[in-house]
Amino acid sequence: MIRMITIIVLLAGVPASGWLAGVTVTVSDYNQLLFDDKIIDSTYNVQRTANPPELMQSVLEPVFPWESFCLSYFNVMEDAGVYRMWYGAYEAPSMARRICYATSIDGLTWTRPDLGLVTFEGSTSNNILPVEFDDGGSIFIDPLAPADSRYKLLGNRLFQYIYESSDGINFQLVDIALLDMMADSHNLIFYDDRTGTYVAYLRSWNFLPDYDGGTVPNRTVSRLEVNDPTEPWPYNPIDSPFYRFGPERPPAISTELEMVLAADSLDPPNIDIYNPSVNKYSEAPDVYLAFPSIFEHYPPPPEGQFYSDGVLNVQLAVSRDGIAFERFRTPYIDFACFGDSVQQMYMGLGMLRIDDFYYQYLLGYRQTHGNPEQFGRYYCFRQRVDGFVSLDAKAEPGELLTKILLFEGNSLRLNYTTSGDGFLVVGMLSANGDPVVGYSLKNADTLRGDNLAAIVSWQGRQYVGHLQKQGIRLHLKMRNAKLYSLRFDQNPAFDADLLDYVLHQNYPNPFNSGTSISFDLLKSGFAHLDIYNVLGQRVTTLIDGHLDVGVHSAEWNGRDDSGRAASTGIYFYRLSTAGRTEVKKMLLLR
Predict the structure, then answer these.
(1) Sequence-separated (6 or more) residues with CB below 8 Å from residue 52
(2) pLDDT value of residue 212
(3) pTM reported for the whole predicted model
(4) CATH number for 428
């Protein structure tokens, strides 16, 4: 069972006066995650919640001599239908580090293929890659590179270097030092299609508050953009470089680059943002998800047991541009889900979309950071698509009002869950706060259950394409519900180029005293709405005349042209325009 952690409570209210002057946001045809107020104007009795993933199982642990000390940083990706993992392994007692390789077809069972490329203790029967560097190592696929350098690996050899490969197995060093500074381990780089540049996230240092009220050098995360990842990277030199690893070695990255993740006043003293683990989310071009390890330092000896000791948990940080991150301050993954078997956590790079979930992989050590005896294994977690953060209402109903939305698409989909007597309903308002005829809360069909992409409807009406350019607000009411994301998309069933109108099912149906028939007219012109019995005889005409584009409805009171009550039975209503005719069935019960 997934345990939910409440992070932020929003009590902005939904004042009607706020509808008159609002911010307009253009939303394209992709998932709109709700971790910030990009599209949210105000809420009442709704809280923002960071949702931890579900632990699946342990997937890999040290079993071979070249892994005998511990497993280390790693990353995963899907490539041509195969799930691939590159991971670091340390040998005991030499502490020799190697990059190893594993594959999977389901994301849970991982196989170490016999690559036969590196000799270890007289044998080439192993999964070791023929590449050497000091530490770290992250791999990405470069969409702009030729086939022979499609895979790129960022590794430490005192400085940062790029290695290139055609297959992700055999890498060649590009012998150009990218930075003449040290960046510690598990840095990363990827091509960002939003910026059109390569973006690197590197481990850096800054002086932050300590337990005794002074300052201490703590780890942070810095960022840079480059047009060519294989050429030297630019930075801003500083007067006093930070020689974290001694004067005989290059300085560590400090404030030469833009710092994007660091401990602040909301954190306890002496906290490290230990590693980046930044992912560009594939469901939305303006979403960056980071899962940094938060290193809580223990006091050193003699008060503590080890130097550089402490525990590390993982938090969730979110951003729209990969620069300004908002970090949720409770664990994304709680130590409690491991019992007492994990005291350090490091999220691997990459997430695998498998069915309706993203599989995430975590390296867990059972010892604290300073303990020289290490044993790590990889665990698989799964997170609902878009499920990282939700807007939640509990037993007391809550409300949510969006900003004015100019959207693309012809239908609205919600990703949500409800529990118990929970529900969601969605109304549409004009920019000045008036209910859109036919799409108000009173017309809204109730949403319940668990759905990743439920099409919102209003008395059966789903088409909203005619409202694209008008600027509308969504007004949601919800109880015992979680809303993860929404999306306006182009539904092929609603092709406006082929339709003059969208005819909806009458409501209520069945009915006894009366029912409403509505339709969305996409082209102005003459329209005829008639009622027929099962013999094909016309009972009455409800509409006969010229109508403008928009939502229209007519009421039938169950009587014919002469005012006589129609008998129980099946009836048909037919809508005709110059372009087409459509018939739907309804049931009258006396």
Answers:
(1) 2, 3, 4, 5, 331, 332, 333, 334, 337
(2) 64
(3) 0.86
(4) 2.60.120
